Amino acid sequence: MTEQLKKLNKDILPIAQWLPHDRVPWVIAGPCSAESAEQVLATARGLAKSPHVKAFRAGIWKPRTRPNSFEGIGEAGLDWLSRVKAETGLLTATEVANKTHVERCLEHGVDILWIGARTTVSPFAVQEIADALRGADIPVLVKNPINAELGLWVGAIERLYDAGIRKLGAIHRGFSTYVEMQFRNDPKWQIPIELKRLLPDLPLICDPSHISGSRQFIEPLSQMALDLGIQGLIIESHIDPDRALSDAKQQVTPEDLCRMLERLRVRDTTITDRDIKRQIARLRAEISQVDAKIIQDLAERMKWVEEIGRLKQEHSIPVLQINRWENLLEDHIAKAQKTGLDTDFIKALFELIHAQAVKRQL
Ligand code: PEP
Ligand code: MN
Q1: What is the pLDDT of residue 180?
Q2: How confident is the model over 113-137, as pLDDT tens digits?
Q3: Atom of ligand 1 nearest to the CA of 118
Q4: Other beta carbons within 10 Å of 257
Q5: Residues 180 and 259 in one domain
Q6: Are 103 and 134 in contact (CB under 8 A)?
Q7: Final residue before a domain boundary, out of 205, 230, 263
Q8: Which runs of E-coded beta strand occur in the chain?
């Protein structure tokens, strides 16, 4: 970790100081967009019944991918958030994408701000927000950028830190992908895990709504997040989901959400049983040995690759022979299937190995 990140990690204020909670998961919930005072208040009343829900979210200005869709109710919705807070006691949260949004939220006493995925990708926009926040004592959550790039995510957090913000958090909402998949956004869990490694004290929140894109996957994704040790969730909830003006398919009613939160299981993070501790240590030792062997084998594979590379060069044979690569991949996938290994995993692994082998021969 760089000195700068170490300092940032040390200075981050514990989540309990700005989002007090007594249960795991602790949850920020509410509609994708604020649409009317009735919709906002009815949703908040339903959500406030869950002991897990500590803050109410609602988009006021909506960054829509295509024009001519609902772009948010605008400033009028901020008064509805104040009413939610007065009536239910829930903290309020909304998305800001520019200086004016920040100013309006600070004037209206919004409790928590977040930076959306389409804004995190733009250092100019993030800097403008950070400058507008200078001197303000408000928590800011940073959603991952829509593209799978950890640097932009960390960079946005650093810009806020440099502007004096110490109540910081990150939201994992998945990464956009061209590949047809089960979810709207690819979770790529390794990226939030890497963020956690870089900034272990930064609260990490999972947004299963925007990862899944459909309500049926919200529960399994929330459970996966918990199983990975992520304790905070931000979930979209609407009093009449099918009629929501944005993200209708992924919203759930407050009643369904409250019930779902009760079904989630939290794994105990402290291992006290000595026998289990011993068993885990033994299994970890086995795994480390296999890992060491994999590294050895990869090094050996690269030695042969370099030798074949020299031979190809001497005889002017092209580095890449697409038939050989296709056969090799098919062969490995067939072998992997027999052992019960996931074929997508083996494909991705050998694509990486092959790319490195080609690089070594150039
Ligand atoms: C949202 O939270 O409603 C939103 C627009 O999310 P994202 O920035 O993750 O797409
Ligand atoms: Mn949404």
Answers
A1: 85
A2: 999 999 999 999 999 999 999 999 9
A3: 8
A4: 29
A5: yes
A6: no
A7: 263
A8: 26-30, 53-57, 91-95, 112-115, 140-143, 168-172, 204-206, 232-236
Q: Ligand 1 centroid to 53 CA: how many Å?
A: 19
What's the one-letter identity of residue 292? Answer: A
Q: Into how many domains does the chain fold?
A: 2
Pocket test for ligand 1, best of 61, 115, 142, 143 (most atoms within 8 A of CB): 143
* pLDDT level of residue 267 (50, 70, 90 thresholds): confident
Among 244, 263, 282, where does a domain finish? Answer: 263
Given a contact cutoff of 8 angstroms between Cβ atoms, the answer to whether 184 and 211 are in contact is yes
CATH number at residue 288: 1.20.59.10
- Let me know if residue 268 belongs to a domain: no
Ligand nearest to the CA of 250: 2
Tens-place pLDDT, residues 17-57: 999 999 999 999 999 999 999 999 999 999 999 999 999 99
Pocket-forming residues, ligand 1, beta carbon under 6 Å = 32, 59, 63, 116-118, 143, 173, 210
Q: Which ligand is nearest to the CA of 251?
A: 2
Range of the domain at 147: 3-263
Closest ligand to residue 117's CA:
1
CATH code of the domain covering residue 15: 3.20.20.70
Pocket-testing residue among 35, 95, 234, ligand 1, by greatest number of atoms within 8 A of Cβ: 95
- Amino acid at position 251, single letter: Q
